[in-house]
Structures are given as structure tokens and as C-alpha cells.
Specification:
The protein is built from 11 helices and 8 strands. The chain is an alpha/beta fold. Helix 2 packs antiparallel against helix 11 and helix 4 packs parallel to helix 6. 45% of the residues are buried.
Amino acid sequence: MMSEKNVKLIECPRDAMQGWPHFIPTQKKIEYINALLQVGFDTIDFGSFVSPRAIPQMADTREVVSSLSAGSGGQLAGSSSKLLAIIANERGAQDAVVFDEISYLGFPFSVSETFQKRNTNSTIAESLGRVEEIQNLCIKNRKELVVYISMGFGNPYGDVYNEEIVFDWVNKLVGMDIKTISLADTVGLATREQVYQMTKYLVDSLPETEIGVHLHSTPTNWKEKVDAALEAGCKRFDGALKGIGGCPMADDELVGNMDTELMIPYFQEQNLLSNLNIDALTNCSLLASEIFA
């Protein structure tokens, strides 16, 4: 059982895979995610129910989830981890909710109009309506909706951005009873000060809402961003083994994910992470080296 002191790690192989230049065989995806399920991560962001034309790498998500080591009642056999699938509209949500193995649906809600259109083919206002529809589906099917605030720290498109815009949209989402909000540094623009100030404001002002961070970073600036979020009271951190990934809809250059293999020892040193299977983690690291060679 996770103590109140512990942080939650959300491992994101979906984010690592989605922009990879060649198709990763379905059986290799299944092997990798089954291996990740044995490590002890809180959640595995494993795939997405989106247009295969937009994200070809995720075209086999249904086959992948159907082939995972399933237990009963939505619990995956031999694993305490839960599965999260990304969706971009109600149709994707309808496809996802039929799987008992999936506990969470994740929706990318951008505060940049340009990026929202690029990423989900909808305006911000239309996306708010989609969130409402998807939230209703989640409630009916006993799933939980996680909303990611894409471009939460700024955007490269020239769209108007400030912290008040972010906070206004977050408050609208919380008003829809969204229980988990994750601030996404989609293109790696965030500074340490931004991460601290924005995360702290949301953690302090929304005590009933779980505030997480999905931070993209380089190997040289990951620690200052993690430090800032942790200092601000964040206990939910997304990452990916080897720091692979980024959103292929955002820019030509993918900015890597926060490297889970850097975060784990960092959190363990501070007694903020326990009950991980280190042998299983080592196996996953080897598999990741093969997949993302």
C-alpha cells in the first residue's frame, strides 16, 4: 500500500512509442508492457485509441490490451499497476471503456488553440464539450478521466499564453468533477520557476484534486524540474524509461520524456518510493534498449 509520503510514478510507454520512426511489432509491445506491469508503477500509460492515420504506431492498441496478462475485475494478473489509455474524442472513449483492464482514460486538453487543433482536430471550446461527454462515459463505465493540460507552460506557436489562462481552464475542468489534472510540458519549455509556481498554486488551491506533472526534459535539466514539482507538493510524476518520447503532433523535434531511470533512485534516496521490483525494472530497461535501439 502506498503511504501518504510516497510519490506515484506513471510509466508512459505509449508516449515513448508514439513518435518512434518505425513500427514496433505488436508482440514486442505486449512483451514490454507485460514486463512493465511487474515493476510496481502506479499506472502504465500503455496505448491510445486514436486515429491510426494520425498516430500509426498506436493502431494495434486493441490487440495489445486484449493480450495483456489479465486477471479478474479489471485487475491485471500479478500486478498492482493500473492501465491508462489516451483518447481524443468520444469515439475513442467508447472504444476504450469496453476493456475491464483499463482503469483510466487520459484526454489531452491544450491551452494553445493551435496545438489543440493539431492534436485532436478540435478547438479548445469543442474539446471542453468532449471532456464533458467523455466524463459521462467514464462515470457510467466506472473509469476515471485524467486530463492533461497540454502546452501548460507555454507554446511555440505564438498563441496567447499566461498562467491565468491555464488556471481558468483547470477550474472549468475541476468544475466537471475531474479528479486528476496533469500539467504537461509538451515541448520542454518550462523553467524551474514556472514548474514550482504553477504546480504549487494548483496543489494549494485544489486540495481535493490530484495534481500531477508530465514534464519533458533533456538529460541536463530533468532534476531541476522534478525538484521544483516535488517542492511544490506534487506527488504524481510521469516518465518513460530511457527518457524516450515526445508528442509527434507538437513539433519536428521530439523533446524526451522525463527519464524514469533517473527519477527512481532520486525518489528512493528521499524515501519517497517503495515496493518496486528492481529485478523486473532491470529486465524492462534491457527490453527498452532493444525496442528503442
